[in-house]
Recover the amino acids of this structure.
């Protein structure tokens, strides 16, 4: 299967509840590469790379989130070829 990258913007109660760590653990378990970070506006941003079924599984996990989180919405879009990032084969939490 071919790899694809998605850009995610997650809104709701997603900061100060362990959401970035939850995202990293979930991505690591599924073999997804990319990164996640908090945004100043209270959302969480991520770029994820994997095959389509794996990314769907990750997004289902993120909709649930960790126990203290409350996810209102996940906006996502596929990154076109010229927009994709060179990822180093792991998933990281960015500051």
């Amino acid at each position: 299967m071919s790899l694809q990258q998605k850009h995610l913007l997650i809104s709701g109660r997603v900061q100060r509840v362990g959401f970035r760590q939850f995202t990293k653990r979930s991505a690591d378990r599924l073999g997804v590469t990319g990164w996640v970070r908090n945004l100043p506006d209270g959302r969480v941003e991520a770029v994820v790379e994997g095959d389509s079924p794996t990314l769907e599984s990750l997004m289902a996990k993120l909709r649930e989130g960790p126990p203290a989180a409350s996810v209102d919405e996940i906006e996502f879009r596929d990154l076109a070829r010229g927009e994709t990032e060179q990822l180093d084969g792991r998933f990281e939490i960015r500051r």
Q: What stands out?
A: The mean pLDDT is 96.
